[in-house]
Amino acid sequence: MENIIEIENLNKSFKDVLAVNNVSFKVKKGQLFAFLGVNGAGKSTTINIICGNIKKDSGRVFVNGYDLDTQLFDIKSKIGVVFQNSVLDKSLTVLDNLRSRASLYKIYNDEFLKRVKELAQLLDFEHLLNRTVNKLSGGERRRVDIARSLIHNPEILILDEPTTGLDPQSRKTLWNVISNLRKSQNLTVFLTTHYMEEASDADYVVILDSGKIVANGTPLELKNFYTGDYITLYGVDLQQVQKITDDFTVVNGGYKILVPNTKIATQLIIKYPEIFVDYEIVKGKMDDVFLAVTGKKIMENNQK
Q1: Minimal CA–CA distance to 130: which of 93, 158, 183, 101?
Q2: CA dihedral in degrees (4, 82, 163, 204; nearest 10)?
Q3: What is the mean pLDDT of each run of 10 residues along the chain (304 residues)?
Q4: Which residue of 52, 169, 173, 211 has the fewest CB atoms within a 10 Å radius of its CB?
Q5: What is residue 77's three-state secondary structure?
């Protein structure tokens, strides 16, 4: 699988603050790539460099084979961006917002109307085309934001905290659309999010802290390395649990034990079959990975 984004030794400072510190990573075509970190970690700075919105201090950036230093226009034509805060003009209708964006890519008249029809059907906002943006709900506005970013058929969709503030149903709808786009068009999705269940579905994850990459790998690799498995035992008493370990947590209806990996869990099941009658085993979550790697909670994003 070819690399569609390649970042090599990227650096960016703002006065005395080193926002991006020697960052290198690759994104493969068609991947869902998660870029994680609390506010100030360097995520948005990196994205803005890739999009050509701010200049890097040093390093190399290649997008779809194009060099950021000499081929920025070509890169912009391959990227669609959904920013954390909507960039739609609230006083204009949905249709006029999309027409304004399409004109930047010289998409006019019948070609424009055809593309809008495709996106409106895909994202279910045909009934909103003549409504002004200030009358849309948060979920409706987000769908139009995504349509705006896709108007020119980009090969890479950058989603910067795309579901922040949305209700669960709207989040589910957006992810269904993005999943379908990835399958039908081999769209590459570059995601930043503070919802760890969204990162859990990624093909590859990079975690930033204070401008540096502090962990990277598939969600499974990260879970296996930074967390263990959780065994929850039901229908047992304290004495039975203490046969296994003194390190446990009391939960509703049972006891929870952390073990290093599934192999150890299996060994315990074999050793204590009389205790493992009603139980469940789950792997650690991406929240646990993030906390282990950075010592911070991802939800700090919304507390600053």
Answers
A1: 93
A2: 10
A3: 94 95 97 92 94 96 96 95 91 97 96 96 93 93 93 95 84 87 92 88 95 96 93 96 95 94 94 96 92 72 39
A4: 169
A5: coil
Query: Distance (Å, rounded) from C-alpha 245 to C-alpha 258?
Result: 10
**Alpha carbons 210 and 134: distance in angstroms, whole number:** 36
Task: Provide the phi-psi class of 278: left if phi over 0, else alpha when psi is between -120 and 50, else beta.
Answer: beta
Beta-carbon-side half-sphere exposure of residue 92 (alpha carbons within 13 Å): 12
CA atoms within 13 A on the CB side of 91: 0
Name the token pair of 237. 């008493």
**Which are the contacts of 204, defined by CB distance < 8 A and separation ≥ 6?**
27, 28, 31, 33, 34, 216, 217, 218
CA 276 to chain centre: 37
Contacts of 206 (CB under 8 A, 6+ apart): 25, 33, 34, 35, 36, 213, 215, 216
Contact criterion met (CB below 8 Å) for 75 and 69: no
**pLDDT value of position 302:** 41
Q: Is the model's pTM score more than 0.90? A: no
C-alpha dihedral sign at 93, 95, 98, 99: negative
Three-class secondary structure assignment of 86-129: CCCCCCCEHHHHHHHHHHCCCCCHHHHHHHHHHHHHHHCCHHHC
For residue 298, give both structure tokens: 């991802």
Provide the residue count of the chain: 304
What residue spans of the chain are helical by DSSP H?
Answer: 43-50, 72-76, 94-103, 109-123, 138-150, 168-185, 196-200, 219-226, 238-244, 262-271, 286-294
* pLDDT value of position 239: 95
pLDDT score at 1: 66
Separation of alpha carbons 4 and 185, rounded Å:
14
